[in-house]
Amino acid sequence: PSRTFHGNNRLLTSQIISYYESINQYKKELPEYFNFASDILDEWARLEKDGKKPANPAFWWVNEEGEEVKWSFEELGSLSRKAANVLSEACGLQRGDRVVAVLPRVPEWWLVNVACMRAGIVLIPGTSQLTAKDILYRLQASKAKCFITNDTLAPAVESVLPESQFLKSKLIVGRGNRDGWLNLKELL
């Protein structure tokens, strides 16, 4: 039973503790290794493909102008594998390497997140309000080997390159090219 307090039903503290203890007694085997991209995303894509799960968008993005990007689980899985290959091959990153990603919330933001999970690369997100000094600090403290950003923030990254001894590759998200930068969209 629950006690009514100001019209709301609330569980008594003893009930909450009892419920917690009953959950805590359940012993579920946890896998030694877990990867969201391959263990969840790829599994949902397989279930959709086999008709065992209704087709729903895994990702649905709409910007202020009404542009939409909608990916199924299979499309997100495929694109994230390609992006993971870009990080591993074109950028030369390995499991455990660090990447700083400073992007507005564009579809590539989520794609890079899933690609990093898939490849075992550590993602260090940053806000697009970072200054050159902030970027340098993050690069030095993290020893990141790759930086991912757009045309707007690329000059700030370039201004601190001489002091970022660990940075090996730079990825730009956008339509244009920039000297010394790899273009994510072209590589995908």
From TrEMBL:
Entry's EC annotation: 6.2.1.2
InterPro entries: AMP-dep_synth/lig_dom, ANL_N_sf, Mitochondrial_ACSM
Superkingdom classification of source: Eukaryota
The entry's keywords: ATP-binding, Fatty acid metabolism, Ligase, Lipid metabolism, Nucleotide-binding
MF (Gene Ontology): ATP binding; fatty-acyl-CoA synthase activity; medium-chain fatty acid-CoA ligase activity
Known catalytic reactions: a medium-chain fatty acid + ATP + CoA = a medium-chain fatty acyl-CoA + AMP + diphosphate
GO biological process: acyl-CoA metabolic process; fatty acid biosynthetic process
Transmembrane regions listed in the UniProt entry: none
Keyword ATP-binding: yes
Example of a GO cellular component annotation carried by this entry: mitochondrial matrix
Domain AMP-dependent synthetase/ligase: 52-175
Family label: Belongs to the ATP-dependent AMP-binding enzyme family.
The name this protein goes by in its record: medium-chain acyl-CoA ligase
Protein source organism: Hylia prasina
Recorded name of the encoding gene: Acsm3_2
